[in-house]
Design brief:
With 331 residues, the chain is mostly beta strands. The chain is built from no helices and 26 strands. Strands 6, 7, 9, 11, 12 and 14 form a 6-stranded antiparallel sheet that branches.
């Protein structure tokens, strides 16, 4: 049998066809499918394979459509920084171009530093409504990426951390990003996290390969240097979007991004000149489109929560379950 790319821009159920597993075909934008017609169904007048509704490409293994891209909304404000407080606090700032539209993913890149270490509670978000995607700590050098699905016009988050040691050199920073192109559900966000706690090196690699080329990668670095004011250069194909080098003996937070990274293990190896880091903490997060699994549970059931978009009472019904169909990249 031949395999055909589905070129439609929205998912569509084809109950008159069976996929390679013998189940009714649920076609997803960017997917390729091997199918057979259901004898006597009559739902497709021609009975041709692929279906003759204009949503299918010629037989081949190539995919000419793809998942919606996860993209940045607007231009973020400059990172907010606070210094000189042992019981530190920092609140990010949204820019005019970041509306925090309902369903978008809000990202906070946050750092903290105390040359005598940090308190046992670590770096936290004060309202408890933001999830921590990745957290790295090397004694008193901390980097964390938090996320929240926007409800619409969300306020800027505030973060706190008890930083021990020399009060004058304590430092916190917060940089806010808004992303769109995601399914409107917090479970739609998948991340690949890698933390590095190694002294004197600047390389971080995802623990798993990037699954989709329309993902969005964020690398947050917090570098402590014993002397000098450093300069920073993101790795090839990465873009530095936030950098706050400071004077000797304090932390230097940097944020690098990579839109549409390759489908492979992803590494960022930036260069930091002038000063050699004494300690560093880094988090690498890859935000991908949704992957949700569904399986059929009967014909003619009305649609219900947790089922693929576009279902009606006249179509076979679906329920969330492990195995079978994959719904991916519904934007």
């Amino acid at each position: 049998m031949a395999t055909y790319p589905y070129l439609g821009t929205v998912p569509k159920l084809y109950p008159q066809y069976l996929n390679a597993a013998g189940q009714p075909l649920w076609a997803i934008p960017g997917g390729t499918y091997t199918m057979t017609a259901v004898a006597g169904d009559g739902a497709d007048i021609s009975g041709a394979i692929p279906p003759t509704d204009g949503h299918w490409g010629a037989a081949s293994g190539a995919v000419t459509g793809f998942w919606p891209a996860v993209t940045q909304v607007g231009t973020p404000s400059t990172a907010v920084q606070t210094t000189g407080a042992a019981n530190g606090s920092v609140q990010g700032t949204w820019s005019a171009g970041q509306p925090r539209s309902a369903g978008d993913l809000l990202i906070a890149c946050v750092t903290a530093y105390g040359d005598g270490g940090i308190g046992t509670t670590g770096l936290t978000e004060t309202s408890g409504t933001w999830a921590r995607l990745g957290y790295a700590v090397n004694y008193g050098t901390v980097a964390a990426i938090f996320a929240k699905v926007a409800g619409g016009g969300d306020g800027a988050p505030t973060f706190g951390c008890l930083m021990n040691g020399t009060v004058a050199t304590t430092r916190m920073s917060c940089y806010l990003i808004e992303l769109t192109g995601l399914y409107l559900d917090s479970s739609s966000v998948t991340t690949t996290i890698s933390n590095t706690l190694t002294t004197g090196t600047s390389t971080i690699t995802t623990t798993n390969p990037v699954a989709y080329a329309t993902s969005y990668a964020i690398a947050l670095w917090n570098m402590e240097s014993a002397s000098g004011t450093p300069t920073w250069a993101a790795a090839s194909s990465w873009t530095n979007v936030s950098g706050s080098p400071a004077t000797a003996g304090v932390s230097h937070p940097f944020v690098d991004i990579y839109a549409a990274p390759p489908v492979t293990a992803l590494t960022e190896a930036p260069s930091m000149t002038v000063a050699t880091p004494t300690r560093q903490a880094a988090v690498l997060a890859v935000i991908a489109p949704i992957t949700t699994l569904y399986t059929m549970h009967g014909a003619g059931d009305p649609g219900s929560a947790g089922e693929p978009p576009g279902e009606t009472a006249s179509e076979p019904a679906w329920a969330t379950a492990a195995g079978t169909e994959v719904e991916q990249g519904i934007g």
